Amino acid sequence: MTTPTLDVRVVRKAAEAVDIATFELVATDGGPLPPFSAGAHIDVHLPNGLIRQYSLCNDPAESHRYLIGVLRDPASRGGSQAMHEQVREGDLLRISAPKNHFPLAHEAGRSVLLAGGIGITPILCMAERLAVIGADFTLHYCTRARARTAFLERIGSSAFAPRVAFHFDDGEPAQKLDLEAALPPPAAGHHLYVCGPRGFMDAVLSYARAAGWPEAQLHYEFFAAAAAPSSDDGGFDVQLASSGRTLRVEKDQTVLAALIAAGVDMPYACEQGVCGTCLTRVLEGEPEHRDSYLSPEERAANDQFLPCCSRAKSARLVLDL
């Protein structure tokens, strides 16, 4: 399945903080770009052939540009390295229209925003939107050091600056994040949003769940999936419900790869179980979930899975394909 794309030009590339660059993108024809909402991201087709997702961090009221922030990851699988080393001002890029798997709950009576490192990109857009509509919120922003803190000036000059607390790993102990103080007790209308490195997010979400926060009031977006064990993986079958055709998925092969090799037209992007692009309904069988996209309740239902990374506990899965 071909995902519609559009061509944009990089009109500005700037160093935002240590190892963080921002890229300003405009339509090649100078026209307006598709609208987006706070929390949205775009798929970026990189010069090396990879596709990566980056959150939009400019004002959604702007239709003339998109702004993304990219951390140069020392453990990069080629995405952030390509953005930092190969993409220059004036270059053309192909991107998707904005998608939002991390939307704001506009009915919230109170919102708590927690960002770790480059996780500030969608969270900042949320904070600015909440400020515009006069909502009650606080933002906790955790980074390794002030020099590695993106958008410091933008946040400091904002009207909501008094609602923001910065927490630096190399700072004094008193200013470090205290989850008990940062998170109010769970209550109707309270919503929590968190984005950042895996360890940071796991710590925040584990604390919130232990404190009794309902899953429906927890909102999060991972940038990368956790590594899943594979030494015990075995092969299994997937059946396409539309035709009855059965495909074998070998132990060292993803379901997505098997489907594509068999000529099945599948949408996909991250191939890590993060973005949700390849989400597929499961009609029979029990999937083994290895993604970072589905909620615990969605996983427990076992009626959908991410074929780019997840596998099967049963000998066969029947897919709605």
From TrEMBL:
PANTHER family named among the record's database cross-references: CARNITINE MONOOXYGENASE REDUCTASE SUBUNIT, NADH OXIDOREDUCTASE HCR
Keywords: 2Fe-2S, Flavoprotein, Iron, Iron-sulfur, Metal-binding, Methyltransferase, Oxidoreductase, Transferase
Species, as recorded: Thauera aromatica K172
Residues covered by the 2Fe-2S ferredoxin-type domain: 236-321
GO molecular function: 2 iron, 2 sulfur cluster binding; metal ion binding; methyltransferase activity; oxidoreductase activity
Thylakoid recorded as keyword: no
Domain FAD-binding FR-type: 3-105
GO biological process terms on file: methylation
Protein name: Vanillate O-demethylase oxidoreductase VanB
CDD domains: fer2, PDR_like
